[in-house]
Amino acid sequence: MTPSVQTPARIRIGSAPDSWGVWFPDDPGQVPWQRFLDEVAEAGYAWIELGPYGYLPTDPARLTDETRARGLSVSAGTVFTGLHHGEAVWDRTWAHVADIAALTRAMGAGHLVVIPSFWRDDKTGEVLEDRTLTPAQWRDLTTQTERLSREVRERFGLRVVVHPHADTHIDTEENVNRFLDATDPDLVSLCLDTGHYAYCGGDSVRLIETYGERIGYLHLKQVDPAVLAEVVADEVPFGPAVARGVMCEPPRGVPALEPVLDAARALDVDLFAIVEQDMYPCPPDRPLPIARRTREFLRSCGRPGAPL
């Protein structure tokens, strides 16, 4: 009997509208969606995320035609949620999630990235609520996230990956660990964004090594330490911090991505690793050269027989 040959785990590299300065479905300062698709393919990426719902065409047939024509496939959709508000926001949340999940499934993707709502406005800095959750809010956050994950899996066949994010309640190492320890590993996985985690003081390699079974997806991103020190000292909201250049082009910032990718490879599971260099607002001619250089840098992080 011939022994079976095990296929090595893969890290599949992609990019996202975020790396082209796209934060909103419709903004005259953003590049048109056709240009994003043209340039992300030209830069050498084969995988993309949907970005803000409505930026790319929401008709699956049209979006399939547009992506296939450029050799692109979709890895995930993204939703923002305020699940720490509990049952009161469920119906509104599900209506929002269901539309995006349906498009995500129709595009053949397997993941839904869930980002918690901000505790302060990412443009004005207005404090919207306390930055620290009460015990009751933590229970709502964890139980409602489990509910969302179960519903998304059962109805759409997608895996929810929760994205720790600056200026949200799932941000620091302490809060990420608390969230993971309080949720069912079978239902809730993590989208580890290396830039956001560093922004909030976390160590991505240690998180992967400690909670490896919970890492379901990666966003590759770096922060500029000098700019980060300024925005932390000045208590700058995330949006203006991005405008200052807190997220920077690899390999100029932290964390170093080679050790992160080595730790991810050691998990021996297939993972998407999506480049997201927050750049809003940005000149329309800026993203493509950065995307090309970043793709080449990530290729240099690969190993013989397992290129990135």
Shape descriptor: globular
Average pLDDT score: 95
What spatial order of strands do you see in the largest sheet?
A: 1-2-3-4-5-6-7-10
Which band does the percent of strand residues land in?
15-25%
Radius of gyration: 19 Å
Q: Which fold name corresponds to the CATH topology?
A: TIM Barrel
CATH architecture annotation name: Alpha-Beta Barrel
How far do the termini sit from each other?
Answer: 33 Å
Commentary on this structure:
α2 links the parallel β2 and β3. The strands form 2 sheets. This protein has an 8-stranded parallel barrel with strand order 1-2-3-4-5-6-7-10, surrounded by 5 helices. The chain contains 11 helices and 10 strands. The protein is α/β, with parallel strands linked by helices and 308 residues long.
Topology, element by element:
Layout (H helix, E strand, L loop, with lengths): L10 E5 L17 H10 L4 E3 L10 H9 L4 E9 L8 H17 L4 E6 L18 H22 L2 E4 L10 H9 L7 E5 H6 L4 H7 L4 E6 L1 E2 L1 H9 L4 H6 L3 E2 L8 H10 L4 E5 L11 H14 L8
Parallel strand pairs: 1-2, 1-10, 2-3, 3-4, 4-5, 5-6, 6-7, 7-10
Antiparallel strand pairs: 8-9
Helix pairs in contact: 3-4, 7-10
